[in-house]
């Protein structure tokens, strides 16, 4: 069993290190390729740890690197206790964890408990064993409706489009809230729970510092699997509907209590859940003292570039965690949503607004999750049809382009693709030719670059006493603006989303997202004052 004493003194300094940490999400396929096959891998990440240390992050979150047929780029797990050869092997993972700890960077990994791959040994056994078998009981198999069972057991839809049920040759149907290649597990089965505990201990014993739990409001299904209300835009996992029976069922909390019980035996580790739940009280239930340490908060992702919307997102987020006493988490982008430079308008305007929102986010108390490439100001990429690989593209009949546009490989250096990401000419998703000015190399020594802004802001966040307070006080501000202060620390953050310059709050400018206008705060700009 891994104990705090097994870690370096710097890493083991505080059991609750995660309460104000800055995490950096690595989409493993797109970060750095060490073997020239055009796909990122674990040794590629290890080769860039110096960059991550220079950036100033505290921990990594690695997307799935487990054995998988890659129907959903690794979120269809065939063996959760091994590394897919595409990304390396267990020795490469061990090297990465050891080297990351030497750089004083912790490592957290994705956990996918809602479903497995259809090539997982359990599901293959279930197909062979037939109806009524113990093997099928690990998944959710049901008889169909209609006189001949030819209709799905209920009307649930898949998050990726189409029905959430697939029929097998013997006539039964199995549930998959995502792709057909991702059959949902039956969490009422004791072997399912025991297997997850084995997986948790396997990676904790290898030195990981925590987990990000995929679809943490899933897993538990309601009694009888009642029909859902079908709407023109049926809610999926990236939205919230209190009447959607597919998610946020009360039985899920027993699963999280089991996870927490295991993790409490490994001091200094943590778990954060992907929880698309907007109701404050229901969200708070996931982060009770005997459940998850943290819950992903997506309110900033969902808010537009508008002072009132952003303030509302902040206040609701802080209100939800106040019910449980856990820190809030903040993020602007991830591997499932359009990058925020593009969401805020794209081009120079989107970049200007993204810089402003970066200062807002990093001024907030709690935990920060950065998505790889946002520190370079990467926009979403409009990929050609032939390049799209997200299962949403096929499942929607080519009407939804999916998430590939935010997953394009990182540009590191040089003036043309693959920009140092790989030695391969063709990377798994193509990079735009015009990204030469967005490479890490091009931005590293440019004091006005997005990368320099992140580095400076993260350095201030770590070292400046103005960030000590955990509560906010709001100032009066003109329409389209806001200003808040960290209680106890004294840092003031002001944001202007109006169309005109406004007077600055009192204080000395510590950092601004763009050029200042004397004692005025220009539009689409944020500033830190002390």
Characterization of the model:
There is one protein chain. The longest helix is centred in the C-terminal third of the chain and has 17 residues, at 347-363. 50% of the residues are buried. The chain is built from 14 helices and 20 strands. The protein is of the alpha/beta class and 530 residues long. The strands form five sheets. The protein has an eight-stranded parallel β-sheet. Strands 14-15-16-20-18 form a five-stranded antiparallel β-sheet, with helices on one face. β10 (270-273), α7 (280-285) and β11 form a beta-alpha-beta unit.
Number of helices: 14
Decide which structural class fits the backbone: alpha/beta
Helix content, binned percent: 25-40%
Q: Low-confidence stretches at least 5 residues in length (pLDDT < 50)?
A: 234-238
Outline type? globular
Strand order of the largest sheet: 11-10-9-5-2-1-13-12
Cα distance spanning the termini: 45 Å
Rg over C-alpha atoms, rounded to the nearest angstrom: 23 Å
Strand residue content: 5-15%
Mean pLDDT: 93
Could you tell me the number of beta strands? 20
Task: Describe the structure in brief.
This protein is α/β, with parallel strands linked by helices and 530 residues long. The chain has 14 helices and 20 strands.
SSE blueprint and pairings:
Blueprint (H helix, E strand, L loop, with lengths): L21 E5 L15 H6 L1 H7 L3 E4 L3 E2 L11 E5 L6 H13 L3 E6 L9 H9 L11 E2 L22 E3 L5 E3 L14 H16 L4 E4 L38 H12 L6 E4 L6 H6 L8 E2 L3 H4 L4 H16 L6 E3 L8 H4 L3 H17 L3 E5 L19 H5 L44 H5 L5 H14 L8 E3 L6 E6 L5 E5 L5 E2 L5 E4 L7 E2 L3 E5 L1
Parallel strand pairs: 1-2, 1-13, 2-5, 5-9, 9-10, 10-11, 12-13
Antiparallel strand pairs: 3-4, 6-8, 7-8, 14-15, 15-16, 16-20, 17-19, 18-20
């Amino acid at each position: 069993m891994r104990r705090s004493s097994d870690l370096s003194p710097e890493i083991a300094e505080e059991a609750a290190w995660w309460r104000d940490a800055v995490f950096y999400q690595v989409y493993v396929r797109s970060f750095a390729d060490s073997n020239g096959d055009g796909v990122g891998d674990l040794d590629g990440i290890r080769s860039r740890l110096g960059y991550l240390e220079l950036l100033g992050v505290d921990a990594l979150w690695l997307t799935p690197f487990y054995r998988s047929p890659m129907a959903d780029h690794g979120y269809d797990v065939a063996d959760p206790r091994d590394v897919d050869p595409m990304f390396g092997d267990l020795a490469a993972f061990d090297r990465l964890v050891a080297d990351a700890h030497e750089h004083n960077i912790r490592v957290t990994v994705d956990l996918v408990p809602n479903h497995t791959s259809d090539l997982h040994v359990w599901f293959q056994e279930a197909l062979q064993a037939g109806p009524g078998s113990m093997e099928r009981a690990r998944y959710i198999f049901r008889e169909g409706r209609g006189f001949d069972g030819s209709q799905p057991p209920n009307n649930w839809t898949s998050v990726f489009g189409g029905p959430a049920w697939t029929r097998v040759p013997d006539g039964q149907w199995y549930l998959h809230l995502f792709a057909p290649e991702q059959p949902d597990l039956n969490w009422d089965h004791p072997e399912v729970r025991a297997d997850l505990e084995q997986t948790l201990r396997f990676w904790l014993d290898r030195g990981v510092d925590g987990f990000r739990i995929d679809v943490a409001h899933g897993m538990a299904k309601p009694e009888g699997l009642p029909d859902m209300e079908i709407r023109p835009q049926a809610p999926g996992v990236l939205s919230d509907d209190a009447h959607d029976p597919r998610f946020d069922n009360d039985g899920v909390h027993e699963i999280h209590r089991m996870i927490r019980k295991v993790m409490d035996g490994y001091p200094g580790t943590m778990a954060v859940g992907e929880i698309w739940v907007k109701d404050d009280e229901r969200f708070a239930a996931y982060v009770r003292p005997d459940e998850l340490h943290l819950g992903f908060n997506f309110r900033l992702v969902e808010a537009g570039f508008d002072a009132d919307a952003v303030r509302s997102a902040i206040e609701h987020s802080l209100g939800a965690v106040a019910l449980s006493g856990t820190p809030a988490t903040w993020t602007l982008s991830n591997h499932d949503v359009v990058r925020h430079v593009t969401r805020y308008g794209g081009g120079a305007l989107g970049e200007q607004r993204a810089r402003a929102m970066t200062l807002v986010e990093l001024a907030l108390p709690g935990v920060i999750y950065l998505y790889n490439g946002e520190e370079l100001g990467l926009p979403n990429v409009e990929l050609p049809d032939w390049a799209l690989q997200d299962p949403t593209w096929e499942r929607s009949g080519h009407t939804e382009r999916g998430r590939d546009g935010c997953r394009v490989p990182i540009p590191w250096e040089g003036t043309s693709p693959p920009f140092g990401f790989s030695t391969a000419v063709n990377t798994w998703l193509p990079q735009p030719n015009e990204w030469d000015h967005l490479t890490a190399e091009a931005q590293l020594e440019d004091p006005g670059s997005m990368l320099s802004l992140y580095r400076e802001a993260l350095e201030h966040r770590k070292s400046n006493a103005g960030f000590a307070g955990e509560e906010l006080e709001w100032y009066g501000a003109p329409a389209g603006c806001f200003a808040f202060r960290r209680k106890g620390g004294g840092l003031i953050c002001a944001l202007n989303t109006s169309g005109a310059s406004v007077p600055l709050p009192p204080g000395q400018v510590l950092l601004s997202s763009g050029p200042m206008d004397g004692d005025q705060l220009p539009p689409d700009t944020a500033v830190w004052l002390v």
